[in-house]
Amino acid sequence: MAWVYLVIAGIFEMGWAIGLKYTEGFTKLVPTSLTVIAMVISVALLGLALRDLPVGTGYAVWTGIGTVGTALLGMYLFGDPATAARLACIGLIVAGIIGLKVLS
Fold it and tell me: Which residues span the membrane (predicted)?
């Protein structure tokens, strides 16, 4: 169950990272509220996952999911650059996440 919590926590991390863009510097109430809620849920689920997972593995996978998802969503939603080098680096992060999962 720890891995399920961790994956969901990573998804909520993507949500709050993308949500920051929509808050426009925390000047919009609804996006700001949703972003803060996503932050709380993400950290709470990470805490639950870390009851059973090594902290280094859990934190690295959590941030990795958030990083990869946010980068990809940034490309899709905001037109962030999708160069071959950038996509290759994202692939390396995914490989690291898989490696940590396999070794834990």
Answer: 33-50, 59-78, 84-103
